[in-house]
Amino acid sequence: MYQTTYHRASSIDEAVRLLSEAEDAKLVAGGQTLIPTMKQRLAAPSDLIDLRHIPELKGITVSGNSVRIGAGTPHAQVADSQEIRAVCPAFCELAGVIGDPHVRHMGTIGGSIANNDPAADYPAAMLGLKGTIHTSKRDVSADDFFVGLFETALEADEIITAVSFTAPQKAGYAKFRNPASRYAMTGVFVAQHGDGVRVAVTGAGENGVFRATELEARLAGSFDEAALQGATVPSSGLISDIHASAEYRANLIVVMAKRALAAANG
Amino acid sequence: MGIEGIGARVARKEDKRFITGRGRYVEDMVVPGMKYGVFVRSPHAHAKIRSIDLSAAQEMPGVIGIYTGPELKADGIGNLICGWMIHSKDGSPMNMGQWSPLATDTVRYVGDAVAIVVAETRGQARDAADAVVVEYEELPAVTNVVEALKDGAPQLHPEAKGNLIFDWEIGDSSATDEALSQAVHITKMHIVNNRLVPNAMEPRAALGVYDMAEDHYTLWTTSQNPHVARLVISAFYNVAPENKLRVIAPDVGGGFGSKIFIYPEEVVCLWASRKSGVPVKWTADRTEAFLCDAHGRDHVTEVQMGFDADNRMVGLKVDTIANFGAYMSLFSSSVPTYLYATLLSGQYAIPAIHCNVRAVYTNTAPVDAYRGAGRPEATYLLERTVETAARELGVSPAELRRKNFVRTFPYQTPVIMNYDTGDYEASLNAAMQAAQWDTFPQRRDEARARGKLRGIGMSCYIEACGIAPSQAVGSLGAGVGLWESAEVRVNAVGTIEVLTGSHSHGQGHETTFAQLVAGRLGIPIEQVSIVHGDTDKVQMGMGTYGSRSGAVGMSALLKAMEKVEAKAKKIAAHQLEADENDIVIENGEVKVAGTDRTLPWAQVALAAYTAHNLPAGMEPGLKETAFYDPQNFTFPAGCYIAEVEIDPDTGKTEVVQFVAADDFGVIINPMIVEGQVHGGIAQGIGQALLEGCHYDATSGQLITASFMDYTMPRADDLPSFQISHQTTPCTTNPLGIKGCGEAGAIGSPPAIINAITDAIGNNNLTMPATPNVVWKLLHASV
Ligand SMILES: Cc1cc2nc3c(=O)[nH]c(=O)nc-3n(C[C@H](O)[C@H](O)[C@H](O)COP(=O)(O)OP(=O)(O)OC[C@H]3O[C@@H](n4cnc5c(N)ncnc54)[C@H](O)[C@@H]3O)c2cc1C
């Protein structure tokens, strides 16, 4: 790790100010992605601004079908939240299969979404749920937020404060883990909304999370596994690496979509 | 032999410190004035070094010194060597290229060391290492061993034309060809044994300390064999003569072979300590471990196995290409030759065997012994071929094996080894029974109803442990003898220190060696301490690898104990006025057999040191040393059966049952042996399903350079193992021990792969059988 200067922010405003003042600052939340990257000397921020002591970033509120989760909420807390489970159990299931217990107790939803790792789980849920990302400056829809590999709509001096979504009628998540990293090699989040179906895919796309529109079309009439019988998705645009070819990922998208549907309907 | 003697499940004495985090590893060592070393490493797989500019780095804060290859050469530090001479079949010696501990003009793999920076802190050393400017002229690289042999392939070393290190053979080529020409059936296989990265939990580390006043060096290092390290560093690398070099290997967190060898870093830390005047500590980070630890396996092999009309094996022909990486590591040449081809008879009576091995340089990390070393490669090809033959011949794989088992001992194979004893059928029967072999079809049908493909596969392995008779290995090219030593020091109060040349880095010697002593004397195990891993304390010894510590190290301990006991009996006979032949030692007493005339053990020990009343002419003291040179290898063997279920939609394999039935000879501590088997099987399943080391074919970059991409087995990848033992005591060592450290890693990969190919009905499978690989085969046949 290179030398860096640590700051502990106690409010969002203070964090924004520190961010704009420093030469090349980075926010640190759970540190589960940023710290290993710094240790490997792949990131060298001049300043680290710790968001973990900002009360405004914490906590879960559910009122009716509306769910709002503070950016600083760790995955374990989401996985264990009875309020969220009551309206959207798939979201808790997804949080519960991120990494391992250590990671889930440190890593945060804001950090995960800001990082937009192409194999991360939360982006699939946010896209599938038509979620909103709230920042220190504005509200951004998930559709506009996830731009590309590790790329988001966030500006340099912008901090995610919370995410929110309206619970759908039904939702399910199925994840096929990368055998080594155990991130998603392909993860599919399906959701049935009042006005249609969404199928969001993570771990497979060369540009990160995306919607499998072929599958959404098939499911529009019937939100059921059977509707995907014989379905295929094109392998173009999918990641090919030592773990999985694009063709194999294309297969996994359909298989995981079916399993997510089974979970949603089960 | 009592509750703490041989055969007892004694809890491991060393575990308290390991489990409570109080182990003392090289990285825990702190000596006055100690500073930190960080290596500048090649980012290229193959390049010429045009220039090295240290000026900016030297100005960095905290930098004490930066040292490079040419300076090392100028100081007379020698090249790293391979200590086992292999001759090609044309009689020429192996073509060993030069391996300078710090590269001088060429780098040959990603991670090749170019310079060391010594600085006040590790961070400063790393910052300065980043600031060293090395100008490289990139050269084409080759990482695949088959490609490296082709015309026009990039050439690594001028000494090895065509990248060929040796072209060696064993067995009778024409007799084998003749046997195959008569065969009624020949099974042919193309077998790839995947490259593995060892990944011991503790990364390698070295702390070199030069004492100017004494002109003396101390090296703290992560070694499985500190005496061999001292010998090689002094005799070949010219750092210091042996009497001026102390090597200490304290607690070592796993080796699996990768810590046998002397690496550049140890030599450079010693030399850098003299250059800089400060003690220099280097500890590998995980990336360095991936890049620079000696890797394992990486063979490509063609096999032909011939059968007569009665399904008896008549001949076996094997042609192997072995990847050696960029340099010849210390024992690299022995692995794909004498530790591999000599085991190709397996458990079978095969009248004619021939094996040809070509050893080849590539732009990858050096390859050397890794858990099993050669024997997993032999077992994998044999057991896949036998299983395939059974399918082709339409007979049961168990019956085909049974028909061909060696049944009379000793058995002389056509490939040097002479098996002393064994009962292969006993393990086969035990394994089949535990696995409920006969009812497998029901389980397969039941799985099919659930949409799963279920398969069963077996493997009958043999391996050679207890390496090895010194004269024999000497005649085969070994540069060292492979005996072991032990010293038993009885203190005046009767407590005992055992100084052993074996080295424990997870095996539990502090417990098992103490069990032998405590059991023989009938004294509590707490009164016996095991000392190892320090060349200043312990007499010369050869260290731990090849499951040799029980068979060889404990045999040496037994010999030393016998000398101690003989002297103690003389003292007791003298004091009890009895004939020494009537004296026995039991339950902590030295006594006249069948009488109540006894002396407590402690009193005899005290008598030896007070020397007030010893037999005439006897020297005072009670301390004996023994060296034991084995007569033969030992031959653990067994049968493993795996059952798997495959999800046809994803290709994911789940190991649903794993049975191991092993013959390890006499067992000292069943709990420790089970732990060794569990760990070995975990590694074997890792090789079969998960672990694959990948280099980019053109750039030579290591793609699997972290746990994000290299899949280590985790607990939830493994089933609960069912283990049993069928014991035929080894006849060539006094304790009857065969060894158990590697069996799990040797026997399990073919059992798993045979089970998967059974399930999917496609034999074209390569390891690791990842979900993608299996899925592709499933859908290839559609
Ligand atoms: C072993 C391991 C396994 C893992 N497995 C998985 C997995 O299976 N699935 C998965 O999805 N993830 C996985 N992760 C990643 C984990 O979920 C991380 O916690 C997450 O990606 C980042 O969250 P964090 O809070 O740790 O962020 P940090 O590491 O602290 O920060 C990550 C990035 O986000 C930025 N950031 C953080 N908070 C904010 C904010 N409020 N506003 C703006 N920017 C912000 C930081 O500046 C930084 O660039 C794994 C991580 C590890 C170490």
Automatic annotation (TrEMBL), chain A:
PROSITE patterns hit by this protein: FAD_PCMH
Stated name of the protein: Carbon monoxide dehydrogenase
GO molecular function: FAD binding; oxidoreductase activity
Keyword match Lipid biosynthesis: no
Domain FAD-binding PCMH-type: 1-170
Database matches in Gene3D superfamilies: 3.30.465.10, CO dehydrogenase flavoprotein, C-terminal domain, Uridine Diphospho-n-acetylenolpyruvylglucosamine Reductase, domain 2
Pfam families from the UniProt entry: FAD_binding_5
Organism this protein belongs to: Nitratireductor aestuarii
UniProt entry keywords in alphabetical sequence: FAD, Flavoprotein, Oxidoreductase
Statement: the UniProt record of this protein carries the keyword Flavoprotein: yes
Automatic annotation (TrEMBL), chain B:
Keywords carried by this UniProt record: Molybdenum, Oxidoreductase
Pfam families the record matches: Ald_Xan_dh_C, MoCoBD_1, MoCoBD_2
Xref: SUPFAM superfamilies: CO dehydrogenase molybdoprotein N-domain-like, Molybdenum cofactor-binding domain
Single GO MF descriptor: iron ion binding
Aldehyde oxidase/xanthine dehydrogenase a/b hammerhead domain sequence ranges: 20-140
InterPro entries with a match to the protein in the record: Ald_Oxase/Xan_DH_a/b, Ald_Oxase/Xan_DH_a/b_sf, Ald_Oxase/xanthine_DH-like, AldOxase/xan_DH_MoCoBD1, AldOxase/xan_DH_MoCoBD2, AldOxase/xan_DH_Mopterin-bd_sf
Top-level division of the source organism's lineage: Bacteria
Protein name: Carbon monoxide dehydrogenase
Higher taxonomy: Bacteria, Pseudomonadati, Pseudomonadota, Alphaproteobacteria, Hyphomicrobiales
